[in-house]
């Protein structure tokens, strides 16, 4: 495929579950009312996005023994929301984040197959794992899973789910053998299913006929070596967080290289970093807006809480407008419950200190600079050009847009940037197929072929 013809893939992440949402903005609405989900989904479909993405939260986070002050009470269950959205959208993919640690393969395979049927082939599963005993307290198995086992359970979980979906045969094959399934009316003869493995033992028959996609699209988020390998072996889309063109290109090349060992072609895994965007009529206006948004996202309180998650100690006595603490983090301490502590605390602290000293930044300013996602900031023309270049340079296959407003945070992008991407030939002007696999250019189960 030539670089000139490489198309951008776009997805919409629903905001409203963490401090990146700017609740002080008068345009900010409920993160629970169905009208909010419907607004963002309809906007994404109007913009011809590939899919709509919902995160997951299984327990309210705590900090220093208290409910996290900035956490949001009320995160509806993803599959329930997406089944409702299937009735008010026609082509938009519907992606739910569901944990493999606290669910069972048969039940979850059935739920995703149901969504795929109800939506006409638009279901996607963002596979996440947990070794967090704090979250596990909400479940019967509370925290039993060792951290080292989370990906082995996830890999077996996905394999079992796909086996269940395959057990119902494929379109036009009475014996159930793969024939290069395409979208349409499913068929085939069901057959018994049996699996015996380290984490699961199942024997029976799946309760639904083959769904339009055969397998719902599998998404995975993870930047560790283990996560990259899991994505290369299992996922259709990987949700990343790399913040620069150079880091994106390195990640892209590394993950795409890994696909060959699993007999997969590079186009069978789409790499889509989560990004933010700020538009302005001029570059200066966009930069000014971006600075104000980041200040609203990282309040003085948020800055100290973020620092405490790394240092592992109470820093409430420090001035958020003052310098970073002169003490080292406690690598064995953990004030935050329900949050992942990314990386080596001592290494992160050293990196942040170097940044603070180099630029003369306070605690709050350091957190703002160090925790920002890859952002596109500028005029609509500049943002369209930068996005197109990012994809053309093999730093990504597309982007999952994370707006800072609920639910109208994508309105301007769809109205002002999407038409410019289309003029460049970098984005579709119409959906070309009914299913999410069609949108993403992914093969159907048993099928290998080139797509635009």
UniProtKB/TrEMBL annotation:
* Residues covered by the Luciferase-like domain: 27-393
Query: Which residue ranges does the record annotate as region Disordered?
Result: 167-188
Q: Does the keyword field hold Oxidoreductase?
A: yes
Per the UniProt entry, the Enzyme Commission number(s) are: 1.14.-.-
Q: Name one Pfam family in it.
A: Bac_luciferase
Locate the compositionally biased regions of type Low complexity: 169-180
The UniProt record lists the keyword Oxidoreductase: yes
Gene Ontology molecular-function annotations: monooxygenase activity
- Which Gene3D superfamilies does the annotation name? Luciferase-like domain
Q: Which UniProt keywords apply?
A: Flavoprotein, FMN, Monooxygenase, Oxidoreductase
Record's superkingdom? Bacteria
Q: Which family does it belong to?
A: Belongs to the NtaA/SnaA/DszA monooxygenase family.
In terms of NCBIfam families, this protein maps to:
FMN_nitrolo (TIGR03860)
This one is known as NtaA/DmoA family FMN-dependent monooxygenase
The species is Streptomyces luomodiensis
